[in-house]
Q: What sequence folds into this?
């Protein structure tokens, strides 16, 4: 049996990427993508060892941002656009954590969904 030669995986260079921050009341998830939207890396509070209510803290969000910044350095990302979704306490701290690790932020966009007419009303009660 002949063993096939395995090639070394070459990481592509991505100079500009996008960071998606999803900050809920229970967790903060940060995803690094290229400009097409293909995921390069991600991190969440639970993946970094936080459990229970500590997952939603700003400190956990900053830890996530540091992990994502390490992945960004592997791909050579220098600048990112930040897309924030949600109302959790880790929103601002995640952005500060990305910037503190030497990545330039070109724009910050709030993508939090807003109800434009609310949900459907209850039907009237028949008495």
A:
């Amino acid at each position: 049996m002949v063993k096939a030669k395995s090639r070394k995986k070459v990481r592509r260079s991505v100079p500009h990427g996008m960071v998606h921050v999803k900050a809920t009341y229970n967790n903060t998830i940060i995803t690094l993508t290229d400009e097409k939207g293909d995921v390069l890396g991600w991190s969440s509070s639970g993946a970094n060892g936080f459990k229970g209510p500590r997952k939603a803290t700003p400190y956990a969000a900053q830890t996530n941002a540091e992990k994502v910044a390490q992945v960004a350095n592997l791909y050579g990302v220098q600048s990112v656009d930040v897309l924030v979704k949600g109302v959790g306490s880790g929103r601002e701290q995640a952005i500060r954590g990305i910037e503190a690790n030497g990545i330039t932020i070109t724009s910050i966009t709030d993508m939090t969904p807003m109800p434009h007419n609310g949900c459907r009303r209850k039907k009237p009660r028949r008495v």
Notes: The mean pLDDT is 91. The beta strands are 16-23, 28-33, 39-44, 79-85, 104-110.
